[in-house]
Amino acid sequence: MPPHFFRNASNGxxxxxxxxxxxxxxxxxxxxxxxxxxVFDQERASEILGPDPxxxxxxxxxxxxHEAPVYVAxxxxxxxxxxxxxxxxxxxxxxxxxxxxxxxxxxxSDPPVYAPNGGTFYNGLIYWGASSGNNSIGGMExxxxxRTLDPLTNKSTTISNNYFDYxxxxxxxxxxxxxxxxxxxxx
Length: 187
Known about the structure:
With 187 residues, this protein is mainly beta. 4% of the residues lie in helices and 37% in strands.
């Protein structure tokens, strides 16, 4: 969006939309309020979406933030998390794109990974920056950290939950270099 724009933050009761964004320097943004589909870069969007893009409502999901989408091509499935779930809620979501229409189901790894916040796929494994929880998550404690999930075996493994005995805050925005180095933010 062009500078300067403004949109109120969610107050927990109402969620602002793109249409409620004020862009004084670009009056064409007023049409966003009535738009069903937004494209910010026409040239690249046309290359990817074709000349007549559209969308279709597929799933009803909770109001929780949904994060860490990871596509596993060998399974043709999309794994994603739900942040701010009710206390003790462990399952993540998986979209099975092999079905027609695609299906959405809950997914629980072994051991469970609580509220992944950032993820990627590398060398057959899903890498997640996982949130922490106390004994409200299945009677176990889980520290913020890096975890892997093998989507074929359903097994998850903690790679690290600290850096030289300093606990992580919130591991996010993962990137794996081809040499195996893991880059992430920890705000």
